[in-house]
């Protein structure tokens, strides 16, 4: 199958969950399909980062980096006020990308157009809509904005909520327009069916492909326990969760567990280093953060989709402590695959248990890897995506099994 894959960013380096998901899916699909990948590039397409991405992706796809100017926030805000399209959608709209896609469609035979995320979906006037199209939603975008409105600063909460409502209408129209929409969890599938009102067969849930065993880092981090938090300014739930955890949770945890050390990698906002809080640059190799003997914490207050950071920690044998929101969409049981916490006392208790009971950490890691094998086996996950593609282009394919409501395993 000849697939035109439209993204919002190049999936290299593997600096976040979205890039990792795109890269792994393209890599697996490339074994049996030809993929042309088109993404905008705000820097020069031929710079060092672009060359490294091209080299990394060359074995799996034909990468087209389209140079675009960074979209002005003021222009996007003006478009929003004029009710042209939601702010977050306008920020990712690039006429140069649209023109490049149109040229590719004239020059190449394309069986299927795959849009990775709502923001990558072509405009209604695009010739892409003359071909079968799949929209893969890594999360329900409007729900992230609803969450941000609940936890945002009061002066901006009303505006964020208004944007969420506009985005919900836009997202509903996108699902209605797409030939098929793919979600990562059964919960997100039900949510998009509710939002869009489309027939059930127009939205399917396909689990994330993820290798169940990867290597942890071998450079130990100080602390008993050594807790790792990977911050990111680029994803609102993560930046919110990082600020909340560092400001409102960790000081109490450090008081209750004097030997504990939090290692914050990447964006730390206004965090100040102390004896119990070490600040690190974003790791070029994730093993520098997810080192053997550490505990990974994922303290999100709102989210949607699947937390790739949890899957990554599991694959490396690192136990995870998370909020229930962060664990949503995973078929994970508290105390068996993961430890859940709501507040400072709950996080402190979870960290203390892991520090004092090495057997608990080993058991969580073993059970989590078994869950990865059962729910996220790469070959099975990509086969389900291929089956969805085949349905879209009208080829014969086995019926897609339903997913259970609480996660990524076929019911």
Describe the structure.
With 411 residues, this protein is an alpha/beta fold. It has 2 domains: 2-210 and 377-393, 3-Layer(aba) Sandwich (Rossmann fold); 226-375, Rossmann fold (3-Layer(aba) Sandwich). The chain is built from 14 helices and 13 strands. It has helices spanning 17-29, 48-57, 73-81, 87-90, 95-107, 141-151, 154-177, 186-196, 236-256, 308-315, 324-327, 344-356, 358-375, 378-393, and strands spanning 2-6, 34-41, 62-67, 112-116, 133-137, 180-183, 203-205, 226-230, 261-265, 277-280, 294-298, 320-322, 339-340. The strands form 2 sheets. A 7-stranded parallel beta sheet has the order 3-2-1-4-5-6-7, sandwiched between helices. Strands 10-9-8-11-12-13 form a 6-stranded parallel beta sheet, sandwiched between helices. Helix 6 runs antiparallel to helix 7 (154-177), helix 9 (236-256) packs across helix 12 and helix 12 (344-356) crosses helix 13 (358-375). The protein starts with a strand and ends in an 18-residue tail after the last helix.
Give me some keywords for this one.
Rossmann fold, 2 domains, disordered C terminus
Task: Set out the fold topology.
Elements: E1 2-6, H1 17-29, E2 34-41, H2 48-57, E3 62-67, H3 73-81, H4 87-90, H5 95-107, E4 112-116, E5 133-137, H6 141-151, H7 154-177, E6 180-183, H8 186-196, E7 203-205, E8 226-230, H9 236-256, E9 261-265, E10 277-280, E11 294-298, H10 308-315, E12 320-322, H11 324-327, E13 339-340, H12 344-356, H13 358-375, H14 378-393
Parallel strand pairs: 1-2, 1-4, 2-3, 4-5, 5-6, 6-7, 8-9, 8-11, 9-10, 11-12, 12-13
């Amino acid at each position: 199958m000849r697939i035109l894959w439209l993204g919002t960013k190049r999936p290299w380096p593997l600096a976040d969950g979205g890039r990792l998901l795109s890269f792994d899916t393209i890599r697996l699909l490339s074994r049996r399909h030809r993929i042309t990948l088109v993404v905008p590039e705000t820097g020069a397409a031929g710079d060092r980062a672009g060359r490294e991405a091209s080299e990394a992706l060359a074995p799996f796809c034909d990468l087209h980096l389209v140079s675009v100017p960074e979209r002005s926030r003021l222009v996007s805000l003006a478009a929003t006020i004029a009710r042209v399209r939601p702010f977050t959608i306008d920020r990712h709209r690039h006429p140069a990308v649209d023109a490049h896609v149109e040229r590719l469609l004239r020059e190449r035979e394309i069986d299927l157009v795959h849009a990775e995320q709502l923001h990558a979906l072509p405009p209604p006037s695009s010739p892409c809509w003359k071909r079968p199209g799949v929209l893969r939603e890594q999360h329900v975008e409007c729900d992230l904005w609803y969450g941000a409105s609940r936890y945002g600063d009061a002066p901006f909460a009303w505006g964020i909520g208004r944007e969420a409502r506009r985005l919900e209408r836009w997202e509903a129209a996108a699902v209605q327009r797409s030939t098929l929409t793919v979600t990562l969890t059964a919960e997100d599938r039900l949510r998009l069916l509710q939002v869009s009102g489309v027939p059930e067969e127009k939205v399917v849930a396909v689990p994330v492909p993820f290798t169940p065993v990867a290597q942890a880092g071998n450079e130990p981090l100080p602390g008993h326990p050594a807790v790792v938090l990977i911050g990111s300014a680029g994803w609102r739930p993560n930046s919110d969760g990082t600020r909340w955890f560092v400001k409102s949770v960790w000081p109490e945890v450090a008081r209750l567990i004097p030997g504990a050390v939090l290692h914050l990698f990447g964006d730390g906002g206004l965090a100040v280093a102390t004896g119990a809080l070490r600040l690190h640059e974003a790791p070029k190799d994730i093993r520098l953060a997810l080192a053997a003997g550490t505990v990974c914490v994922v303290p999100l207050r709102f989210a949607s989709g699947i937390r790739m950071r949890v899957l990554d920690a599991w694959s490396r044998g690192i136990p995870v402590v998370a909020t229930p929101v962060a664990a949503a969409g995973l078929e994970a049981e508290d105390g068996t695959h993961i430890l859940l916490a709501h507040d400072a006392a709950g996080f402190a208790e979870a960290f203390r248990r892991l520090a004092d009971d090495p057997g608990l950490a080993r058991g969580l890691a073993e059970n989590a890897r078994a869950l990865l094998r059962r729910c996220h086996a790469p070959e099975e996950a990509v086969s389900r995506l291929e089956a969805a593609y085949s349905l879209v282009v009208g080829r014969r394919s086995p019926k897609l099994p339903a997913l259970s409501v609480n996660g990524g395993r076929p019911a």
